[in-house]
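Model: Ready when you are.
Researcher: Fold this.
Model:
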Amino acid sequence: PYQKRLFKKYGGFNKVCNRIKYDIKHGVKNEEIVLFLEKIKTDSDFSDLRKLEGYPDRINEIETKFNDIHF
């Protein structure tokens, strides 16, 4: 039940992308997004996230989507 609630709240790829677009619309810079994605890849705080199945594919998909956009 807990994981279902988390998925419903934060959703899949499209919800994540929409949240990032919202942040961009409200002043977050592209460099800040790139830095945050790098932090997810390297920081020990996100080690549990990196252990999840499919993590590399999802993070690369998000990076690809937002590296193509220039602000």
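Researcher: Now this one.
Model:
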Amino acid sequence: DAQMRVHAKPIVLLNIDGHFDPLLEVLARVIRDGFAPETTLKLYKVTKTPAETIAYLEQALRRETPAKIA
């Protein structure tokens, strides 16, 4: 899992019309109640539009891809 550094793949929740709001509320409570560290919030990105999602993923994948040597 990402916390154990097994992978560093970007996780994105495309939250159209608040679809993932209940999940986000549970995650916030888990953190607030001390069952997970606040750094858990850095494991995923919440977006509201497909365009925002694609832009985030493109940026994240550019950071992961090493530059090719010519």
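Researcher: Key takeaway?
Model: The longest strand covers residues 12-14.
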